[in-house]
Amino acid sequence: MKKKVSLIGAPTDVGAGERGSSMGPEALRVANIIPLLEAHDLEVIDTGNLSGPPNPWLPPTNGYRHLAEVVAWNQLVHEAVHAELLKGHMPILMGGDHCLGIGSISAVARHCRETGKKLRVLWLDAHADFNTNLLTPSGNIHGMPVACLCGHGPKELVEIGGVVPALSPKSMRQIGIRSVDPGEKRLVHEVGLEVFDMRYVDEIGMRATMQQALAGVDANTHVHVSFDVDFLDPEIAPGVGTTVLGGPTYREAQLCMEMIADTEQLGSLDVMELNPALDVRNRTAVVALDLIESLFGKSTLMRRSS
Ligand SMILES: [Mn+2]
User: 0.70 cut: is pTM over it?
Assistant: First the structure.
């Protein structure tokens, strides 16, 4: 029987500092996400787009921008992702800005608790997304999802998964990080989050980095990938709101995805921060999809699959 994959569109940019990631789901559809996944022997169900509150575009209150809207969107995402997991489908959340990782990953963690699975979250991002309202320079909640998942943040977001913290920092590995605010850095160290930043990737290479990030993943592990498209070097992926120079090259990113695919434990995926308003002829969506195909076992090279 074919594996079933459910696409969930979350067209919002309420957590971002730049408008446009709300168009991300459609950009992925236009770049053919459905037929491309079907070509990898998957049954693809497009559940359509979630419908949440509009972006009021207001300044921060108490260090948060649009907290009520962010909460509403994350509750919708949490329920949608959890419902697909219950059906035995693999959810692919099409963002949307990365604040929605709170709803998505809290749902995956809840599902793992309910089914007795171990969880490994791979956070592919230029940013650690570990800000709090006291540390944040901007108030944009897309800089805070990992902190919220680990129990640091507003009650409404921290409690979305039913258990606090929704995620133990021990379950997460961050890869590709190259932009962290000073206060954020302190907190990341304090909670003991394992971060493979770009310096690390430069020094030991993507292969050894991924071997470490995937160490301990076994047949009872649910691997969740939270793919912020700004993980990639802006040279290949200009269509994001917060580009940071010095990200993984195309080949490095391919290797990263291929090594995740090799584990055969991918259980859910977020594709976040794709911003067609900043893109060039949808090329960032095309690159993101190319990498997603590798995550689903597309073999670009000469190896035989076993
Ligand atoms: Mn992010």
Answer: yes
